[in-house]
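Hey team,

Filing this mostly as a record. A colleague (T.K.) asked me to run one chain through the structure pipeline before their review meeting, and I want the input and output archived in the tracker in case anyone asks later how it was produced. No errors, nothing strange. Just documentation.

Input sequence:
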Amino acid sequence: MKRILLRVAKSAIMNFEELTTLMAQIEAVLNSRPLSPLSSDPNDLNPLTPGHFLTNCAISSFPEPYTASDSLSYHSRWKLIQSPRDKFWC
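Output structure:
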């Protein structure tokens, strides 16, 4: 995972809080992946995920923050964190 993280973060310089946020979001992505194939039948149960073993319920990815009133610097730093997360599985 270290190699993948270095590849997607590239030369981004993040402080401790930003790196922790990125790692928590990647953890949520990993723990919300289904362990079984998805069914096309809407009446089937939800697929089993690693989150079910951790919290006894499904873990959803973090919601996107509301940034309309945030300053540009906060928004650009947030995009810096979101970019590696979005590229994590590419």
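Quick notes for T.K.: The chain has four helices and no strands. The longest helix spans residues 16-31.
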